[in-house]
Each structure stands twice: as structure tokens, then as C-alpha cells.
Design brief:
The complex is a heterodimer of chains A (229) and B (437). Chain A has ten helices and no strands. Chain A has 229 residues and is an all-alpha fold. Chain A has two domains: 138 residues, no CATH class; 85 residues, Four Helix Bundle (Hemerythrin (Met), subunit A) (Up-down Bundle). The model of chain A has no long low-confidence stretch (mean pLDDT 94). Chain B starts with a helix and ends with a strand. Chain B folds into two domains: 307 residues, no CATH class; 63 residues, Dna Ligase, domain 1 (2-Layer Sandwich), CATH 3.30.1490. Chain B is an alpha+beta fold and 437 residues long. Chain B is built from 15 helices and 21 strands. Classes of the chains: A mainly alpha (229), B alpha+beta (437). Chains A and B meet through helix 1 and helix 5 of A and helix 2, helix 9 and strand 7 of B.
Chain lengths: 229, 437
Amino acid sequence: MNSSISLTKANRLFWLGRYVERVYISLNAVKKYIDASIDKNGEAYRDYCKLIRIPDNYLSSKDFKRRYLYDKTNPFSIFSMLTNAFDNAIEVRNDITSESLSYIHLGLDVISKCAINNAKVSELQPVADYMMSFWGSIDENVIEIRKMSILRLGRRLESLDMNIRLKTCWERVNEILKGGVLTNADMLSSVTDATQTERLKTLIESRSGENDGTGNDEILNCINALFKI
Amino acid sequence: MNDLLTQRDSVNSWFQRYGVRFGIYKNGEFNEQIFPFDPIARRISAAEWKFLEKGLVQRVNALNMFLSDIYSKKRIIKDGVVPEDFVYSSSGYLPFCEGIRPPKGIWSHISGIDLVHGKDDEWYILEDNLRIPSGASYPLIAREITQNVSPSTFEANNIADNRNYAQMLSSMMDYVKPIDGISVILTPGRYNSAYFEHSYFAEKTGAVLAVNADLRVENNKLYYIGIGNEKQPVSVVYRRISDEFLDPLVFNHDSLLGVANIMQVYKKGNLAIVNAPGNGVADDKGIYYFVPKMIKYYLSEEPILKNAPTYLPFYEEDRKYVLDNLRKLVIKDVAEAGGYGVIFCEKLNAQKFDDIKKLVSTQPRRWIAQEVVDFNDLPLFEGDKIVERKADLRAYVVTGEKTEVWKCGLTRFSRNPDSFIVNSSQGGGFKDTWVSN
């Protein structure tokens, strides 16, 4: 029997989707900037902080690599993102299955080991792989449509958010909007704000070409107000 | 079993992968730890199991009859078998439950009975757990993992499959349902020591895992509240929170874990609570002494399984014996659980010994005394060496349409060579329990 989804559970599923996607996109994005730091007097990480709008309180490129990747006490670190994903996942084990949860465990296991030696970012590739495996497992194991929609809405809104911050071209952003956000937001009318969805659609569809960052604040506000819990 | 023993690393990595943990509070901080698993299983022969099974069913049936009686006619008190002092002064006795008949008359749906196998080859019952016995999830997932890692071990040994436990729970919950509705597992949340088990059982039984904020009482019915204010009737709550926190309007008013008015729904007969509130009166360490008498009283049968030799300082004759022989006895505080409040008097210094002696004299109702049962050691791995340590067995008895014993159990062992305390909260580990077919 399909059961209702409580508000606490819906909230967990939504943020689980967001954090898993945030880990995946951040890991892929930061690699480029860590690599560029070699050629740019070690300062490229500053561009990254500015772009994704996190505080730039790192002392050096080395400090950035250590604290952005592995510092559990840094709320913006990859380690913290993954821990947040886990904190949400553990509370919905029975909804996502132990198998899906295991990929988050495996990711945490890898990052914990890498943190001990301050390993280079390439050694975190298995973490990104596990995040993808997590989604594969979710597709296989989560049967209830609404639970799946909440997870997917979280994932796609995060993808939209991160790609806008990273100034991805508008064509790609539009694809993300149409490829997951709108459909899932419509299916979840009781927990999404239809006005914000419509506004988001209008704001994104009216743009094309390069994303120079103009007006992005408004779009990001809209993304974060769309899910009502 | 050799194949399994050589694959210990693989088994442990699967435990890690599935997050098989238990929570523990140390210095006010919550930490989750892997529950140490030893792959050398405890083995119980088919004949021995048959004997245990019979004794456990007998014991749990008598305990259920005792609970029914205590909250209704109280025949056992009137007939002088159990002194009323032991009932009404028990912290587990709930006056609110007077006159309540739980759905299908079942009080203890899931009973965790702790036994030890003595060196004299006798099995002794150490404790009955009729409130929220935990731990069954560990041998359940251990079997899943070990069978996966080493199928040949299980092909070569004729071991009873234990993977029916979730089905036993589901069938029991379906049986006690008083109205149409869903079954929920009510958890206090992530920071409970047994949270792994709550979420794992929800996954395996198909029950909905809920926190109190997900539930609401309206018109003497309990509902699970979904997004968009959807209301789904709840007919069974497998609660994993203690009686005192269950309903802030009836018990502890400061409880932030319970559901307001849930006890009214229960009293009206619109809800089964698994296990029933009020069971604490029957698994009180003081009442334990009377269980063999209950078996004779309610079932007119001789107890099949023995209690550890126990004395109640409440009785003058026993008190005298206890005070005269205190050095060789183990003293247990009836209000404590989890291996706490257990004092081996043999090891006490003179000052502490005198303190305990004084306490037993002045507060006799607070203590029971037992002869130290020298129970068997079991082999286990310590690093690469095999050593022997004390181990007990928690057997799980499920009462629904009938009373059945799960063909497995949680074998807990001490990791300390000098200790008889096997509780996970005190550093113990666990083994699977193999029952031969």
C-alpha cells in the first residue's frame, strides 16, 4: 500500500537529493580550479569561491584544498556536504533502501580515509562515482512515484542552482529546468509554490547564450523558495 | 566454517557498507559505533533448540497471562503467589493501564529472553525483556552478509534460515490490528542507540518509520499526517520509545518524543501498541523471581527453563542468607538495565562491600541477589588469535496468533577476559546463532 509522506520525511528526501547532487557537481567543478591554481600563482581557488558564493577565508591554495575538501568543521566543505547527505539519508533508509544508503556510506568511507592523508582531489573520484551509483540504485529501488519526485526535484533544483552559480550557458540551464524541475514541481503541487515555479520558468526561458551572472540572484532566490517545506 | 573465517575482512567491509551500528552516549556526546561482530557462530543443536523453544514459549505465555491478570482481576495477588508490594511498587506498573485489554489480549508481542548456558550444561534464564527488547536486527543482517560472502559455509552446514523474522513481525502486527490502517514504527529519532534497528525493521517489514511529529490523534483515532495534510489511519504502533515518554498527557509531561492522546486511542481499542504499555511490571528484576511460580499458577506446568538461583532480600529468610553470603553473590539493582547496577560482591573492597551490605539491609526491595552462574565461554577472534570469552543468548519470542520463537538469537559476548557483562553499551560484541535443522 502506498503510504502518505510526512513533512519531515519529504524534507529529508528533498535535501538528500540536493546534497548528493551538490557533492557530485562540486567535486567535478573544483577539480578544474585546483588544477588551474598550478598555473595561476595558486590563486584560482579564489575565483571558484567567488563563483559559487562561499566565503573565501582560505590562507592559500594548499589551505583551500585541505579545508574545502576535508574539513568537517567547514560547513562549505565537500566532507560537510556528504555528511549532510548522510544525515538525511539515514533518516529515510526504509524509503530509499539499505542498498541506496550504502553508496553514501561508501562515499563517506572514501572521503574519511582521504582526509587522513589530505589526499589529492583525484583520489576522491570514487566519491563522485558512488553518488552516481546512488542515483542508479534509487531508480532501481524507489518505486513510489512521489518519493521519487521529491528526490528528483531536490536533485534537479540543486543542479540548476549550481549551474547558475557556475555560469553555465543558458541553453544547458534551460535543459535542466525542462528535464526535471518543472515536471517534478508540477507533480508535487502540495509542497511546491506554483508562482515561484512559473516565475523561474519565465526568468530562465527569457535568456540565452552566455551566462554573465546578471540577474542570477533573482533566479537563485526563486529556486530556494520553490519547495515550501 | 573455515571459508567464512578466512573472509572476515570481507564480512566487516559489508558491515561498514550497510552502516550496521549502534549509538552510544559518552560524556554527553552521541557517537555511532560499529557493533563488533565475530564470525564464529554459536551453534545450537536441533534437540537442544526444541527444548529451549518449549521452555521459552511456556515462559512467555505465562508472562502474558500475568500481565492480563495484573491489570484486571489480580488473581495471582489475591491467591498470595506474588506479593502486591512487588507489583504496585514496581516502576513498570502503570495504573493508567488498569482495566485495559489490548487487542487480541496480547501484552508482550516481542519478548527478548536472556539466557546463559552454564558449565553444568543447564540453560538459565537471566532476564526477561518485555518492554522494547532490541538487537534482533544484528544477527538478521549478519546472516544476510555472511551467507552472501560464504555460501559454501551454509551449504555445508544444515542451519535454519533466520530471514523470516521480518515476516514474523509483520504477521503479528497484522494479527493484532484492531481497525484498518497502516503499521508504523515509532522512533525517537536518529540519536537513539538502536536507530539502525528501527530503520532496518521498517525497511524489512514494510511498516512506516515515523517520529511523533508525523502522528496526530483526532476523534480517538491515530493518523499519519502526510504532505498536503493527507491523513492515513494507523492501526498498529510498534513503538521504540519507553512507556514514560509515550504520551505527554498521561505519563511524563515533559516528553518531547511521544504523541499527545495516543493512550486514549489505545484505551478505546482503536490501536495496538507493540509491546503494550505497562509491561515493565512483568520484567522487573524483582518479579523475575516469581516467574517459575507464575508458570505453575497459570499453566499448571513445571517450568521447563530454570531461573538463575535468586534471592529476594525483601523476604526475611532470603535477606539473612544474602547478608551472610554476600561475598559469593551478585547483587542487581532492580531499577537498572543494560548491564548497569550489577555488582559482583566478590570483587568489592571492604568499604564498598559494607556500603552494599547496608543498602541491602535498609532498602531490601531495591535489590535481588543471585548465585554467580558460571556460564560457558565461547571462542572468538581477538586479532588473529582465537580466545574464549563469556557469552549470553537473547532469544526472541513473538506472540501473535501463536507464540513462536525465532530460530536464531543474538549471542552477545564480553571482550574483557575478566568480565561477565556482555552488553553492547559496555563494549561487548555479537555473534550469529546457528540453530541446526
